[in-house]
């Protein structure tokens, strides 16, 4: 697997995806290796049966992912891997190399990265060319949502396999660590979880929360990930409201406690592949308010739904109205949350994703599914 920063995951959706999926693929007939970046994780040796291979990288915003993916691809071609699995559009541009070498290639597209606000014109052009390359060089294409599958069918005529992200079983914990560290109490805060990048539109959530008199706090959990100026803008926007808390990246028990004890969860993004954070919030039964983008509708308006409230993306007033109403009437949110727990447990599991991924591997290798 090439294109991740490393495992174990601390931040990043692709990293969490691979950390959960890869060990479930390992078995008597399957060995898995993940290429990692030393700056992200320095641990040596296998992790849950997954071999970790370290290659150098040029750690800048524009070169980190592609340089590491290039070195990793060249390394992989020297070894006897039966199949090379790229994650994300940028790394997938290198699918040409194993394709020319006659190696089966699987690409997982986690989102249309050229639509992300952080990229300039040259980077967006490069990512669009990467999409073109993978459509010609990938033996099989996986996407993380049915929304993306429809795009690839309509744009490229490709039958991409939709394999949604999963979530592990929730670990419900009392607010011990988060109470000691940040003074947070059960049911007394709204949670936002994810990287602090422009497409997450956290500024909308801050502006909406300022207009709500709920007596609680807004917890924004996540790191900047090469978007320090945007994160600084968010902190300035929240500076006059002491109720807003920036925790930085959270993992382990702290993350479980935040999800276990929040009053509600908000996902304000204008662009997503299939957000693991949203699935995690639903798995904990949290009342959810999310922007009205296609993939959020796919998750929240599935059979048996709705499992959360949608609002027009970028409409701060509508976000404040939905969130304020949810906080004022917790019973309605609790009802949606209870239904969501069962929905996520049935449709969004890593075990299900692993079975489907192994089927794609067999197809790519020419074996019967």
Write the layout of secondary structure elements.
Layout lengths: L12 H13 L7 E4 L14 E4 L9 H14 L6 E4 L1 H4 L3 H5 L4 E5 L11 H17 L2 E4 L2 H11 L4 E2 L14 H6 L6 E5 L8 H9 L6 E5 L6 H11 L5 E5 L3 H10 L2 E4 L8 H8 L4 E4 L2 H7 L8 E3 L4 H13 L1 H18 L2 H15 L5
Parallel strand pairs: 1-2, 3-4, 4-5, 5-6, 7-8, 7-10, 8-9, 10-11, 11-12
Helix pairs in contact: 1-15, 8-13
Arithmetic mean of pLDDT: 92
Class of secondary structure makeup: alpha/beta
Distance between the ends: 21 Å
Overall shape: it is globular
H/E series, N to C? HEEHEHHEHEHEHEHEHEHEHEHEHHH
Strand content: 5-15%
Record field, number of beta strands: 12
Keyphrases for this structure?
369 residues, alpha/beta, 6-stranded parallel β-sheet, 4-stranded parallel β-sheet
Give a brief outline of the structure.
The protein is about 45% helix and about 15% strand.
